[in-house]
Amino acid sequence: MVSKDVIEDTIDDWGGRIAQEKVIPRDLTRQLLDSLTMEEVTVLTGVRRSGKTFMLYDLVKHHGGTYINFEDERLHRFQLEDFEKLLDIAEERAPKVLYLDEVQEAPGWEKFAHRAHRRVKLVVTGSNSCLLSADYSRALVGRTKTFESRPLDFKEFLRFRGKGPGRASFLEYMRLGGFPRIALTGDLGLAREYLDRIVHRDVMARNSMRNPGAVMDLALYLLSNVGKEFSYRSLKEVSGLKHDATVKEYLNRLEEVFLFRTVKRYSGSLKKQETYPKKIYAIDSALIGLGKRLDDDRGLVLENLVYNHLSRSWDIYFHRDGEDVDFLLCRGTRPVEAVNVTFEAARKETFDREVVGLQKLADRYKIKARLVSVYPVKGIPETIEGSLAHRFLLKA
Questions:
Q1: Are strands 325-331 and 334-342 parallel, antiparallel or unpaired?
Q2: What residue ranges define each of the domains in the chain, with the CATH number in brackets?
């Protein structure tokens, strides 16, 4: 247990730190501020180091309230009974808003939230997509409003770097990615620390892994192969795991902590979709450089960036069967737009590969077609819209 005095001292200490911190606003902050008027528990999840804590700092600066971080070592003995002390402190202060950062470190938090969310406004953060599944959901079903924190998009990256839009700043975004601290400092060495902490702290430490070393091997292999097709059998061979089911479990764990997202091959049959190979994309391009790549494939890094941009708004598949297209944008399973991505297409074989399949698929489904590139592509048919990446990624 933790005494009320220690909890209060910890809160006051964090309050002093927040007051001194310079916070660069994120686009998601406005939605979070709006949620403070709702009775539901505001839940902010997302990959570690994507800026969740600083978004809470921004809320505190704008709206006030009581902030506490459960990764603070002074709270390592915090137990369920200690929440009542924390609630007493929050109710004594104005406004009655309680921010619980990295709440998964506090056992039983969901039971407390179920009981307390009508007495104070609760805002919680966590680095695992299972924060509101399984045991949690039974206590809080229908009582949450959930948001996902992601690394900086291109517009936010420009804000953090203090630069204007353009191809040069976009190439810098491709290299550095969107983790806020890396964007601010230019220190790509932080990416390895982030990956180690995510894999060891959020995956291995929270799950019973029979072969923990295979988790990092699998993560590094996937980072080396973003935008490429895989099967569970192929991942089994490179990871040294013996069973497809184990590979699937480990990949699920890496997805739960937001490191990767898988994309299915499109089919009108949902059953067939499950049998086809899938593609993998990383949460941020800074991590891709940690993979054991044999070449510097800027095209795949660009494809990963475009995927992360599109996935904020669309259900996404890739397409085969004669019309090879990087992204088929859908509403549910209804095709709306076909998108290919290429760094440049100066060579004829590159041009043909990117344009022919795109045009065929657009004709097949009677949908729009788009080619996204860093440099202009000459000779695109009028039926295909060409988009320069540094402008396309600034669109909502």
A1: antiparallel
A2: 4-149 (3.40.50.300), 297-396 (3.40.1350)
